[in-house]
């Protein structure tokens, strides 16, 4: 379908989406060309950690010279991020016929503090991708959410941040081609193809903030260190096996297998960084204390609880909803090892939502 800038009303068009962050249980670590993953990953979409983004599109005086964008984060003009967003928009302009003819005003904000230790790229880039696709749907006189909408939004989000492609769906999501996941693709994420056991449907995530600062090494640099890594191929094969086994545990409700694989994946990610050249130690002393005390608590009480980490020092404690009361005492004891005793309570969420623009 074609259009012209005359299709843009004088007051412009706008779209607004709320999109959550996610935490990977099977880790994606290592890229192929074109922002494609070296191994399939699986994540849970969170509920309380999200970004709200509004994008307003207006006509450019010189059609075809765009896209142009002005970016505001929590009300403040952010020139460095505006530059990054403009670079991203130019890279995806071929996917949206309208982009070269518009100027975009982008306003964004997070539900969590910028220094909370939660990576906002997944929620931020997925929210932006959903807005871009929603604007395209308006040009095409379609509803956001029509067939192919979320696949395209996931693919566009991936080009901005790999993990962002998993945030366009709620619940449990898989990104990367895998023989045990029908319809899986390296180009976009897909929702889990079955309903998980009730034990996992209300999964809770307590995020223990050991250090709220920026990561010692960026994700891009970390992924790049897998090129030529002596253990890369073994790691990619391990991730594939772990994903197959985790799918069985999610279906059957086997917590012990779930916990073993999730923790193995987290520690394997950090092992890759330890064995990289140059090497990086991303955990802090208190990270190790929390891990050890969590293991002690589990052995003493038999509680269903496990941990995972991203490429940083902060700990995610995962546990079923039925364990909430018992795990509360563990979390209380672990606050002593967190920055300003900071803990963010979250849970598996329903995914992004389109909001009414104001």
TrEMBL record:
Q: Which UniProt keywords apply?
A: ATP-binding, Lipid biosynthesis, Lipid metabolism, Lyase, Nucleotide-binding
Question: Pfam families of this UniProt entry?
Answer: MDD_C, MVD-like_N
- Example of a GO MF term: carboxy-lyase activity
Q: Where is the Diphosphomevalonate decarboxylase-like N-terminal domain?
A: 20-180
> Which positions fall inside the Mvd1 C-terminal domain?
207-334
Q: Note the InterPro entries from the entry.
A: GHMP_kinase_C_sf, Mev_decarb, MVD-like_N, Mvd1_C, Ribosomal_Su5_D2-typ_SF, Ribsml_uS5_D2-typ_fold_subgr
Please list the GO biological process terms of this entry. isoprenoid biosynthetic process
- Descriptive protein name: Diphosphomevalonate decarboxylase
Q: What is the lineage of its organism?
A: Bacteria, Pseudomonadati, Bacteroidota, Bacteroidia, Bacteroidales
